[in-house]
């Protein structure tokens, strides 16, 4: 016990690494409407958190992508017939618009759930200050207020839900938390928005289908990204791990921007290079900040308040508050979710960083710029050549044609023909220059 609130970093309890997690509490379904935007039936919620679903989809997805990559190579990268239709084009547009709007809706909803209704601001000393902030982010079940959380004790031979006594703040055995109890992050929106966001990772597989139907190759990075995201979200929601909030918060915000960008570019609208560079930067940032803060939660211990009833020598009772250090996370399942996400994000961060360096900073960017300059210079030379041909190559008006008899008539025919050819050449030169200027703008 300590007599003042504090925070410290220490190695997580060894019990956090008892894999696979045993005796974990069931994930608590979100409250029905009107406490949530709409009702998610509890049996549907629970069924989709069966481990077999994400594992089966991830494995089948990877196998199918490998097979279709091979099929596309055998066809020389030729686009599928359906990808050339207007129907396909508009379906792709609708897909991007849907994910942009849905991601923005999730981003707004998860911000309101966390920063609007659950997290205590660190400058509100009357509510506990920084300790209350950490408590509201680490303990996501129970009633609002510093020291009022409901936690799960996964210690050997315990495995019970414990609630804080309203007076003494001592943790006592209790029933599982109610989905109708307001104030903490899970019930305020993480259960609802997080579960739907988990389902959205299945839908995002359509991104890969679009690439394959265009005859292109789906990279190993994309397969790893989609399959890993499904399992990462499953493990976070299944074990109600507090840091999964970070995943939903960052990822939904980035996706809202990213799918808006995809929608714009699908209409062949040129997007400035700084915007593309900023999107890649934000993706890398979400990996670093999100993964780093989630990893840090494994080592955070903070002061949890408790009231002690002490008896003095005269037999009088005196109540005074003391603090004990408790870990931010409660169960091996929550810790497993953090470890899996960090392991998943580490190579993803490296791959995105390598892409950024090669595309915008490294020799790849220089080579691409040099190649674009060569193309523009070659195009300008070609245009200049056409202009010269159109204006001078057939200028026979300056040529003296000397013929006997009907020479004057023949000379008039030659002049008329030369004028017509010259006009055609000048028109071709003007069209070529306009095309070159457009290609120059696009390359830049």
UniProtKB/TrEMBL annotation:
Sample GO molecular function, one term: fatty acid elongase activity
Residues forming coiled coils: none
Swiss-Prot/TrEMBL catalytic activity: an acyl-CoA + malonyl-CoA + H(+) = a 3-oxoacyl-CoA + CO2 + CoA
Superkingdom field: Eukaryota
Keyword terms of this UniProt record: Fatty acid biosynthesis, Fatty acid metabolism, Lipid biosynthesis, Lipid metabolism, Membrane, Transferase, Transmembrane, Transmembrane helix
Biased composition regions of type Basic and acidic residues, renumbered to the chain: 434-444
UniProt record, GO biological process: fatty acid elongation, monounsaturated fatty acid; fatty acid elongation, polyunsaturated fatty acid; fatty acid elongation, saturated fatty acid; sphingolipid biosynthetic process; very long-chain fatty acid biosynthetic process
Keyword hit for Plastid: no
Annotated TM spans: 88-115, 246-264, 284-304, 335-357
Record Pfam families: ELO
Region feature (Disordered): 425-444
Protein's membrane topology: Multi-pass membrane protein
EC primary class: transferase
Keyword Transport: no
E.C. number(s) listed in UniProt: 2.3.1.-
Annotated compartments: Membrane
Cellular component, GO annotation: endoplasmic reticulum membrane
Major location (coarse): membrane
Family note: Belongs to the ELO family.
Name of this protein: Elongation of fatty acids protein
Species annotation: Naganishia liquefaciens
Lineage, opening ranks: Eukaryota, Fungi, Dikarya, Basidiomycota, Agaricomycotina
């Amino acid at each position: 016990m300590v007599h003042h609130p504090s925070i410290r970093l220490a190695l997580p309890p060894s019990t956090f690494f008892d894999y696979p997690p045993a005796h974990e509490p069931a994930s608590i379904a979100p409250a029905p409407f009107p406490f949530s935007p709409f009702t998610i039936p509890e049996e549907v919620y629970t069924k989709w958190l069966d481990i077999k679903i994400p594992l089966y989809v991830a494995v089948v997805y990877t196998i199918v992508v490998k097979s279709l990559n091979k099929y596309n190579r055998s066809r020389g990268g030729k686009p599928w017939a359906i990808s050339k239709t207007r129907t396909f084009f508009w379906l792709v547009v609708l897909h991007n618009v849907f994910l942009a709007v849905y991601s923005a809706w999730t981003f707004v909803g998860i911000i309101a759930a966390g920063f609007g209704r659950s997290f205590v601001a660190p400058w509100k000393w009357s509510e506990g200050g920084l300790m209350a902030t950490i408590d509201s982010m680490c303990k996501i079940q129970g009633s609002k207020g510093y020291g009022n959380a409901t936690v799960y004790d996964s210690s050997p031979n315990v495995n019970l839900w414990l609630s804080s006594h309203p007076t003494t703040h001592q943790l006592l055995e209790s029933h599982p938390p109610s989905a109708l109890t307001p104030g903490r992050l899970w019930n305020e929106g993480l259960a609802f928005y997080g579960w739907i966001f988990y389902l959205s990772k299945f839908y995002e597989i359509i991104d890969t289908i679009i690439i394959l139907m265009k005859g292109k190759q789906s990279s190993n990075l994309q397969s790893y990204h989609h399959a890993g995201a499904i399992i990462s979200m499953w493990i976070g929601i299944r074990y109600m791990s507090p840091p999964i909030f970070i995943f939903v918060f960052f990822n939904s915000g980035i996706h809202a921007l990213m799918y808006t960008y995809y929608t714009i570019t699908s209409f062949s609208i040129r997007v400035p290079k700084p915007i593309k560079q900023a999107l890649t930067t934000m993706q890398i940032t979400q990996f670093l900040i999100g993964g780093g803060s989630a990893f840090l939660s494994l080592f955070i211990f903070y002061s949890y308040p408790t009231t002690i009833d002490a008896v003095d020598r005269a037999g009088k009772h005196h109540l005074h508050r003391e603090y004990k250090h408790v870990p931010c996370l409660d169960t091996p399942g929550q810790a497993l979710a953090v470890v899996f996400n960090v392991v998943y994000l580490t190579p993803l961060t490296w791959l995105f960083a390598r892409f950024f360096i090669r595309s915008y900073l490294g020799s790849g960017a220089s080579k691409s710029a040099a190649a674009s300059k060569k193309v523009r210079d070659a195009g300008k030379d070609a245009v200049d050549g056409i202009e010269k041909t159109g204006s001078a190559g057939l200028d026979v008006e300056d040529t003296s044609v000397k013929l006997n008899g009907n020479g004057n008539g023949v000379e008039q025919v030659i002049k008329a023909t030369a004028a017509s050819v010259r006009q055609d050449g000048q028109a071709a030169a003007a069209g070529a220059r306009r095309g070159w200027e457009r290609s120059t703008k696009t390359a830049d």
